[in-house]
Amino acid sequence: MKRIIKCYDDVAAEVIEAANDRFKPLFKINELRLDIFKQYCRAIDSIIDECEGEVIIVEVDEDDSTVKVSIECPDITLDTNKHVFYQLAERANSLTFEKTENEEWVCASFVFPSLWERAF
Amino acid sequence: MASSINRDFLTEKDKKWLEETVESVAKKEGNVSRTRLYDLLWSYLAVKKAIKNSKEIKITYTLFDINENMGYINLVGEKIEFADGKLFKEVGRLATNFEVYPKLNGTVEMNFTFHGFRLAKGVN
User: Fold this and answer.
1) Burial class (CB in 10 A: 0-12, 13-18, 19+), B30
2) B52 touching A (Cβ < 8 Å)
3) DSSP-assigned letters across all residues of A25-44
4) Distance from C-alpha of B101 to C-alpha of A104, rounded to nearest angstrom
């Protein structure tokens, strides 16, 4: 049975916690931004499911603390102009498409705004 | 014309090119929707504006080569980066569908496809 990877629970949570340990005590997580990011992750889950993707990578930028979420799929096809993919793109700082390292799939990367704010 | 479209990023040269190209194609083709032509041509300019590395990407638009009711915007490059997600969404809203897939030569190819160009007879 194919294991379903959840973007937040299985990937992002650990990455964000590790980043948080590095950024404190100067910065702390903004809980509202985190809640919004969790919504983005649920949307990512639906996209991965629809595109039959298998990989989710989450990275936090050390310089500007933006959060990059990358998904790898055989291809991405959107048959409706109201697809959640577009809503995610609108909320991202940037959106990139390139081939995966093994050159067989497409990697789509969303860079979302930082979850952190100054602690004091 | 689609009045809800964002025209803020268009230069005067862009606006002139848009209007002239829509008229030129409409006159040549006959029963074609000027609104739909505007949608595709505006989207072509929007994609060029939204992409960060546009000089490294081959961006073209094609009208009516597959069938007379369809046009598309095509992008090919090793890395296609949209710095403006709002414009990407707006283009997606106007397009009929979107696809991106890997090619054998290390690039990815992307298409925004537009349907619905032909008017019913007797409609302008």
Assistant:
1) exposed
2) yes
3) TTEEE-HHHHHHHHHHHHHH
4) 9
Q: Do B102 and A76 count as a contact with CB atoms less than 8 A apart?
A: no
A12 Cα to chain B: minimum distance (Å): 22
**pLDDT tens digit sequence for A44-71:** 999 999 999 988 999 999 999 999 999 9
Query: Tens digits of per-residue pLDDT, A56-111?
Result: 999 999 999 999 999 999 999 999 989 999 999 999 999 999 999 887 899 999 99
**Is residue A15 within a helix (H) or strand (E), and if so which, with residue range?**
helix A13-23
Q: What are the chain A neighbours of B107 within 8 Å (beta carbons)?
A: 99
For residue B113, give the nearest of B77, B64, B78, B80 by alpha carbon: B64
B107–A90 C-beta distance less than 8 A = no
In DSSP notation, B23-51 reads HHHHHHHSSB-HHHHHHHHHHHHHHHHHB
Instruction: Find the closest chain A residue to B100 by CA distance.
Output: A76
User: In Å, what is the CA distance from B41 to each residue of A70, A75, B1, B29?
Assistant: 30, 25, 12, 16
From chain B, pick out residues whose CB is under 8 angstroms from the CB of A98. 78-80, 108
Question: Starting from the edge strand earliest in sequence, which strands make up the sheet with A94-99, in order?
Answer: A55-60, A67-73, A106-112, A94-99, B79-82
